[in-house]
Amino acid sequence: MPRIRVDHDECVSSGACVLEEPDLFAYQDGPEALAVALPAAQALPRERMEELAELCPVSAIVVEDDGDPA
Q1: How would you class 31 by CB atoms within 10 Å of its CB: exposed for 0-12, middle for 13-18, buried for 19 or more?
Q2: Which of 8, 17, 33, 47 is positioned for an S-S bond with 25, CB 3.0–4.6 A?
Q3: In 3-state terms, the chain is what percent helix, strand and coil (to 5)?
Q4: d(CA 54, CA 9)
Q5: CA atoms in the 13 A half-sphere facing the CB of 16
Q6: What stretches of the chain adopt beta strand conformation (E)?
Q7: Which domains, ranges and CATH numbers included, belong to the chain?
Q8: Terminus-to-terminus CA distance in the chain, angstroms?
Q9: 16 Cβ contact list (under 8 Å, min separation 6)
Q10: Longest dimension (CA), the chain
């Protein structure tokens, strides 16, 4: 089963994902405004997850299978 996540080593907080899909992405709590994928994003089909990954200008949105290393 695929999952979508934001690689915080790559995220530059551009806000593209949060602005385009606020029901699927948000900023985490804490000192850094890094994006996180919300639980609703995990229920999407892989094809839609891959479309969402294209929103990120630095390719920080990652789609992977559950068995892939994080």
Answers
A1: exposed
A2: 17
A3: 25, 25, 50
A4: 17
A5: 15
A6: 2-6, 25-27, 35-37, 61-65
A7: 2-65 (3.30.70.20)
A8: 14
A9: 55, 56, 57
A10: 33
Position 5 pLDDT exceeds 60? yes
pLDDT of residue 69: 56
12 alpha carbon, distance to own chain's centre: 12
Closest by CA position to 58, among listed 13, 22, 24, 27: 13
- The encoded tokens of residue 60 equal 């920080």
Please tell me the predicted confidence (pLDDT) of residue 66.
Answer: 77
| Residues 1, 24: Cα–Cα separation, whole Å | 18
